[in-house]
Q: What sequence folds into this?
């Protein structure tokens, strides 16, 4: 596959995401995002998303809205619990290699039902309803189990928050090291992968596990 030459740098992509989330939190929209539907015909010929976002399927956490982006801006991979499965890895590989997209963000969110369900299973409070749901729980289980073991004296609410972040970190690590294509791109400086958590109540996206090269794009404090 050939990589397009006119790509957005990881730093500029992060700046766009941060600025978009600031607009979303202040209940404003950019004219560009609002008018993006007018580009529908032009986008039929191709796309060049500036960021890849692997996020949860939760209806309260749509990446395009909370980052105030329009048609063609983001390549979004949505799955319950923002887990990393083979299809998700392949989707990220495809976007990075085909469109030259240079930033990947794995984004969890507060009150995540998939992480909550996993903690309940681990505590013996519930069971898994189907094999397909078990597959999601099993992918979240390692990071959630560690949180329960290390933070056994913390409240259930804090354990959930810790498990959400740990699940994101596990997914970031999986993308960085579980794909030859993505790992080679990261090692060569062509791709950056970072983590984030979206707070459903406040609208804020907190980025973490962000490489030094991108930290200047993050909000102060």
A:
């Amino acid at each position: 596959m050939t990589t397009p030459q006119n790509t957005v740098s990881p730093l500029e992509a992060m700046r766009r995401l941060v600025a978009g989330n600031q607009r979303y939190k202040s209940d404003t929209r950019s004219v560009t995002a609002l008018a993006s539907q007018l580009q529908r015909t032009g986008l039929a010929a191709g796309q060049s998303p500036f960021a890849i976002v692997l996020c949860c399927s939760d209806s309260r956490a749509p990446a395009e809205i909370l980052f105030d982006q329009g048609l063609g801006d983001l390549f979004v991979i949505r799955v319950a619990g923002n887990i990393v499965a083979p299809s998700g890895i392949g989707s990220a590989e495809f976007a990075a290699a085909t469109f030259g997209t240079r930033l990947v963000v794995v984004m969890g969110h507060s009150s995540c039902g998939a992480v909550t369900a996993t903690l309940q299973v681990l505590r013996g409070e519930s069971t898994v309803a189907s094999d397909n749901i078990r597959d999601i729980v099993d992918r979240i289980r390692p990071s959630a189990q560690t949180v329960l073991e290390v933070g056994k004296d913390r409240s259930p609410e804090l354990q959930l928050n810790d498990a959400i972040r740990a699940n994101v970190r596990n997914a970031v690590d999986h993308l960085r090291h579980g794909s030859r294509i993505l790992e080679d791109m990261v090692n060569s400086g062509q791709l950056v992968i970072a983590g984030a958590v979206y707070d459903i109540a406040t609208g804020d996206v907190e980025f973490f596990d962000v490489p030094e090269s991108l930290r200047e794009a993050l909000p102060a404090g």
Notes: The first helix runs from residue 10 to 25. The chain has a mean pLDDT of 92. The CA atoms of residues 151 and 159 lie 7 Å apart. The longest strand covers residues 103-109.
